[in-house]
Structures are given as C-alpha cells and as structure tokens.
Amino acid sequence: MVSYHVDVDPIADFRAGFSSAWPAVWQDFFCDFRAILLSGVEPPCWDIGDDALRQGAKGIAFASRRAVGGFNLVLFTDALAASDVLDVFDPHGALPKDRRSWTP
C-alpha cells in the first residue's frame, strides 16, 4: 500500500452523501456491487460512474466507512489529462523505481 500525491480536477465530491442535488441513481452508491454483479445484473454504481464521467468528473470522492473523517477517491484513469498529477508519495526514496526492483 502506498500514498499518492493527487492533483486532479474536476472530482465529483460525494463525501456528504446523497441529497436531492444528486441524480436518483446516486442513492445506491454504497450498494453491494459484488452480490449484484454475481446475480448477473449490472450494479447501479456502474451507472453512477458513467454519470460522473458524463458530467466531466475524473473521479469521485466519498466518505470512508472505516476511517471516521477520512475519505476515498476513485479515479477514472482513462479520463486523466497530461495536466493531472498522480504520483506515488515516496519522500525517502524507499520504493522500487522500476520493475527490476520487484523481481528477485
């Protein structure tokens, strides 16, 4: 697990959760997508991602269910532009620099 320095705009900010300002499909943001997918149905969260992309968002920020006050960020990497920043945060240079560092 690593940390990242991220500078991407725009992001759909869903950290406060659903309100009437959001399209109705966003009510199902926290659906059990795995169970729905295993039942052979496309989960509503996929429609939510499509909606965010149509609105020009490059990702969605949402409240963490594990870390109080924290949030998660899903990025649509295909939507990122050259001006967007997504860099591994490694201030001490401890992480491998290329694939050769990962192989014995």
Can you give me a brief rundown of this structure?
With 104 residues, the protein is an alpha+beta fold. It contains 2 helices and 5 strands; from the N terminus they run ββααβββ. The mean pLDDT is 90.
Overview of this protein structure:
- A hairpin with a 7-residue loop joins β3 (59-63) and β4 (71-75).
- This protein has helices spanning 33-38, 44-54, and strands spanning 3-7, 12-14, 59-63, 71-75, 85-89.
- The chain is 16% helix and 22% strand.
- The chain has 104 residues and is an alpha+beta fold.
- It has one domain.
- It has two helices and five strands, in the order ββααβββ.
Sheet with the most strands, sense and barrel status: 3 strands, mixed
Provide the helix percentage. 10-25%
Shape: globular
Q: Strand order across the biggest sheet?
A: 2-3-4
H-E string: EEHHEEE
| Mean residue pLDDT | 90
Give the beta-strand count: 5
Detail the topology: elements first, then pairings:
Layout: E1 3-7, E2 12-14, H1 33-38, H2 44-54, E3 59-63, E4 71-75, E5 85-89
Parallel strand pairs: 2-3
Antiparallel strand pairs: 1-5, 3-4
Write out key terms for the chains shown.
three-stranded mixed β-sheet; 2 helices; 104 residues; 16% helix; alpha+beta; globular
